[in-house]
């Protein structure tokens, strides 16, 4: 179907038939009226394509496209091996006693034993604790959504991680994917214990596990936690201005990006032993 716009033409024949649109009788005689003229293409598309193939393009008919079946897996960012990116490799070392991973890693006893993991911090409400008779477990039942108050668990999580450290153990912090909830806990731990800003802690953890991405609400809660941590740090520093940065770093940090520990310039996603003081 061809449609053209212009002044009213005289009757015209295409393909042996007249096809014209005339102005309304109410319009003034001989007035310039703009209207539409619909015309049929003689011979249809087949004739047109045979005479003017350069103006035609072949497309796949929708009737030939098969709808996806339930047996076909959805593409959720998986590699050719079929394992989601967040489950590939193993847990990553944040500090020599602190590891970050996913629920898949938490279900792999071979991985846990190889890393010397003695305890797990399960930051979810639905991930099972697979080996309760073999490892120490603690659960933080938090959902990964904007309504969850994960910051109310920060101090309890930090104390648990420290308790494992004091027993010369190693703890794996995990959620379902090791991207949002468990990463948030690891960030809070670094900010609190190393007295660093969120930006620095985030970069440090991301260098080790590049896919971390706490949800927007968690990032806001971490920023609020940062202000609390640094406010305490500055207060302690004001009371005890003497001493070296390393000595003061155990309780504080300065506001000039001189942090308790230096972040490496480049660290692999699955980095092994950290060079940071702990």
UniProtKB/TrEMBL annotation:
The active site is at residue 175. SUPFAM superfamilies: (Phosphotyrosine protein) phosphatases II. It comes from Prunella fulvescens (Brown accentor). GO terms for molecular function: MAP kinase tyrosine/serine/threonine phosphatase activity. The keyword Methyltransferase does not apply. Residues 90-231 form the Tyrosine-protein phosphatase domain. This is DUS4 phosphatase. It holds the Pfam family DSPc.
